[in-house]
Amino acid sequence: MLRVILADDEPWIIKGLRKMIDWPSYSMEIVGQASDGRELMSLIDTQRPDIVISDISMPHMNGIEIIKRIKENNLPIKVIFISAYQDFNYARDAVTYGAVDYIVKPVEKSKLDEVLNKTIDYFNKRQEEEIRKGKLQHLEHKNRDKEIQEILALLARGKLSPQANEYRLAKQWISYEQYCLGIVELDYRGNRSERWTDHEAKLVEFAVGNILQEVVVSSGIGHVFMKNNRYVYLSREITKASILARDILEKIRSFLKLNVSIGISAPANELLSLSAAYGQAEQALELKFFDGLNDVYVYKPVEQKQTLEQQIYNCQHEVIRHLTSRLWKEAEVSLAGLFDTIRLASYPSRSLTLAACFSSVMSIMQALTKTGALSSAAIDMHELQNKLAEYETYEELKAEIIRVLDEFHLGLDDQAGNQGKLLMAKVVQYIHDHYNEEITLESVASIAFMNPYYFSSFFKKHTKTNFKQYVTDIRMNEAVRLLTQTDMMVYEIAEQVGYSNARHFSDMFKKQMGKVPNDYRQDARG
């Protein structure tokens, strides 16, 4: 609503103006009235109107003085003057000072309507102009932000010299005395092949970017850019670097239900040091491999490590000795010692740890092959190397190595083939009886009195498929039967075959069958 003040030293004129116009129909409301110039200026100060409709000739301050005062104070107020016939030339001169128009007494409704519409047009045009300017400013700001992001990415790669124009621009726009750099990395658990599609990844990237924009950029404490498909932020909050990182982590976890880890560099003084700061943040981020996901890690210089090659060799030898003697429990104890020694020698480098673990597995396998206990084709080492590199944490990596060695330990002495078949039959029957419940690898492994890692290998050996896919196949086959032979709703079928979320069921069905459930039903029924 536009705010209006009426002013005239004759009360009956103000009363007439109030009744003459249906003010709300013009999206206007009268917020005050004055009977002289001083009172009008006082009301202008307190009410901050959009429009003043005033007699041009009033006690204490005339119209010209009033409009001059409004202009001096740079107030966005439009003035409409009412003048007697003898003040006609005077009122016309007032227009040159910025009045919208003037109306000669006696005031005619049609003339007042015309002037009010003219005033409304002015406000509409002013609003459009402000929107246009706002869009231009937003675009300019957006383009500058994009340019800053590109420059920071170049600096992080060490691709800018102090003489480069981009570097000079960065110095103008980013004048921090000190800064910290943080890398935000999504945490994955389980099979990496089950990560998001490209479209889902883009949505996640957009959502994480919005949170960083709010926490870092909009608050004025830094900038955000991307490198190696990860978000990186630059912050001048040196003393609160960990607090800021944890705030980002908590907001992503709260709003997006995603886990991330954040590595923070040591404070840096020069933008040219940004590449080194990025390396520090990456090094800090590697700590999540050892210490767990979904946390904040601060860079610390790496201490000189003593070589532990002999200790690693001794641990490997113990593992080999126990495996060739069919002593799996003892081999597990030796493996635990091997893993602890590798961590001690390689921490905090994930790459060194991966290399040491893979090298140890190779040494153990080669030794078993030489003894004749294993054939040389017992394991695809290239495939194993790629698989080990996928794991996010040292605990996952160790579990996979134990699973692999346990699987081949079973292969060293497989005298219980018939017993295995009987046990497998029991497991399969259990799955068929309980597929519509919350059934997991761990729960079925407990039925077979096996640890999950060994059971996974045992199951795949007998069924030629993994446990998860086996259960999914059973559920989807039953879903097809219900879709084609009943009129049950999709959400009812989802519950019937073990899915509490109908959307998840539809996604899984489409992935398995190539169509969403309703389309499949329609096509099947012709």
TrEMBL record:
Keywords, sorted A to Z: DNA-binding, Phosphoprotein, Transcription, Transcription regulation
Please give the Pfam families that the UniProt record associates with this protein.
GGDEF_2, HTH_18, Response_reg
**Keyword Transcription regulation recorded:** yes
- Is Cell cycle set as a keyword in this record? no
Which InterPro entries does the entry link to? CdaR_GGDEF (IPR041522), CheY-like_superfamily (IPR011006), Homeodomain-like_sf (IPR009057), HTH_AraC (IPR018060), Sig_transdc_resp-reg_receiver (IPR001789), Tscrpt_reg_AraC-type_HTH (IPR020449)
Q: Where is the Response regulatory domain?
A: 3-120
Provide the positions where the record notes the PTM 4-aspartylphosphate. D55
Q: Where is the HTH araC/xylS-type domain?
A: 425-523
Q: Which residues are in coiled coils?
A: none
**Gene3D superfamilies (UniProt xref):** 3.40.50.2300, Homeodomain-like
Domain of life, source organism: Bacteria
Tell me what this protein is called.
Response regulator
Protein source organism: Paenibacillus oenotherae
